[in-house]
Amino acid sequence: MQKVQEEILVDLESERRVLSGMLNSEEARIEAYDSIREEDFYHPLHRTVFSLICQLYKRDVKPTFAELLKESQNLNLFRNQQEISELAYIAEHFIEGENITYWLGRVKDRSKLRKFESFLRRYHQMIRENQHSVEELLMSAEEELTNLTALENDDRVDSPVQLANLGYEEVERRYLRFKEINEINKGVLPLDGLPTGFDSLNNVTLGYKPGDLIILGAQTGHGKTAFALHTAKAVTIEHKTNMLYLNTEMSRVQIALRWGSILSQVEHEKLRSGDLTSGEFSQVLQGYSHLSNSGFYSYPCPNLTPDKIVSIARKFKAQYDIKMLILDYVGRMEKMTANYAEWQILEQIVKTQKMLAQNLGIAVMCLVQLNEDGTLQGARRMKNECDLMLKMVPVSNEEIEQNEKLRKFRDVNYRLIVDKNRDGKSGIDIMIHFDKTRQILRDAKLVSL
Amino acid sequence: MIINLKNQADKWYTELARIIGTLQVKGSLRPDEASCLLDIIDLVVVQKNLELLRVLEAYVEHDGIPETHEIEEIVKATLIGTNLRQAENMEQLTAVLDELIRERNRVLSKRQEDSDGYMV
């Protein structure tokens, strides 16, 4: 009877498969790290091995069998031959990465079943003790059972009291911070998220927040990458926060040279040709030292797919705790389904990015290409998904002459149109200056009175 | 698809790591010795560092004899004292090991010559 019960509640072979998959495939590590917990394993040794692999993975150390043994040695684990042999068995029976979902599902199911069994035992005991009213017992059992059946690991249901408390705490925190910063900084608005790199955009958005999907559209050759790297500079160099930058069309060298120009303010063309004065050369070196101390992680990847983005983002979230991801740019991504129309593909990509932002609690910025007339393909659907939609468009001299508002700025040559802003005002223009030769962007300066 | 380790090198790797781990829990290897050996098999089998393999093959060519014991201890201490996970240490390590092995072989040749002379 005991044996039958164990067979139903425990699946040691699936636990071994998950662990062997994690030892042998990065894809499996990413998937398992994100979707399963130590306590989902039944066997104590398997829990320990899972935890060790996760620790190595977080430190970006490939968890080979030898690494695992060394790590366990440092932590004084695995003190007998049987444990070492079990570990060797796990290491040599590996599964292909793509099967990991199946084995994870089996381990999770057994884990749920054990929780359910323990729930039944507990309530059986409570009924026998006869210390609670029937109503109390049923209500509490129903709540526990709902949590067990309907909700995934990270899901939660907020009761009215919890939600009200959360709202109160949030507003109180903001109120106090606003008051404090108002007194210290004489009215500069405190940010809620990561800096955008523009004071005026910071004021409108209060920064890029965890879970936000930001879409930035610009025509080809009109500063998409410059905008992305400008954002990266604000986030990773000035704000010292980690971010991942995915570029689908530029090489590592091209990205590095762009940074050189942005950080040293030396013309990009000079960097490319090498025609630099010794002063400029030293400026460039100094610029790169800022980059080397920053949290900017770059992943040039010409054949990017939505699935690959999710996988890379999860890895960098686990290993480097990134707070933002920039995808430069959507149009160059591999097509998932050849039969889909362009707008359907874009919609699918954008939906995936929104889910990614929410699941990982990071801000995701997608760069998209505007048509020649300034419109965006599939714009309405993209707008539905995103939290902030920006368009970067050039401002001509004729426009400046005709528009009084534009004439208030000394050096405006581009504007950011805030097409959608879920948390604030939209339909407004932000005047900026884009120095193409140095790849630098900033708020346009007002004409002094 | 479940795969038992398909290639021989992987099987050797797992078996060697298992033996090292077992010897350590039995107390036959010190933690620093076990750790060094585990690093070596990772380097040779997983990272395919053939240069280190070449040096180690040359090292184990001759069984330990009393005259070369001291050199062999230095080789062991050098291996244990080097952080094998840092790629920049490897070039220096192989140069030092090559030098020590040459010295050991010189001692062995001299011993052979002496022994041949005695025979004559």
Number of strands of chain B: 1
Largest sheet of chain A: 9 strands, mixed
Indicate the CATH topology of the largest domain in chain A: Rossmann fold
Please indicate the percent range of residues of chain B in DSSP E strands (runs of 2 or more): under 5%
The CATH H-level homologous superfamily of the largest domain in chain A: P-loop containing nucleotide triphosphate hydrolases
Return the string of H and E elements of chain B: EHHHHH
Protein architecture, described:
- The complex is a heterodimer of chains A (449) and B (120).
- Chain A has 19 helices and 10 strands.
- Chain A has helices at 2-9, 12-24, 26-35, 44-58, 65-74, 81-92, 100-129, 134-150, 160-185, 199-205, 224-238, 252-264, 268-273, 278-292, 306-320, 342-360, 379-385, 397-402, 404-407, and strands spanning 93-95, 213-218, 243-247, 296-300, 324-328, 363-369, 388-394, 414-421, 428-435, 440-443.
- A 9-stranded mixed sheet of chain A has the order 4-3-5-6-2-7-8-9-10, sandwiched between helices.
- With 449 residues, chain A is α/β, with parallel strands linked by helices.
- The radius of gyration of chain A is 27 Å and the shape is globular.
- Chain B contains 5 helices and 1 strand; from the N terminus they run βααααα.
- Chain B has helices spanning 8-26, 31-46, 50-59, 69-81, 87-119; one strand at residues 2-4.
- The longest helix of chain B has 33 residues, at 87-119.
- Classes of the chains: A alpha/beta (449), B mainly alpha (120).
- Chains A and B meet through α5, α6 and β1 of A and β1, α1 and α2 of B.
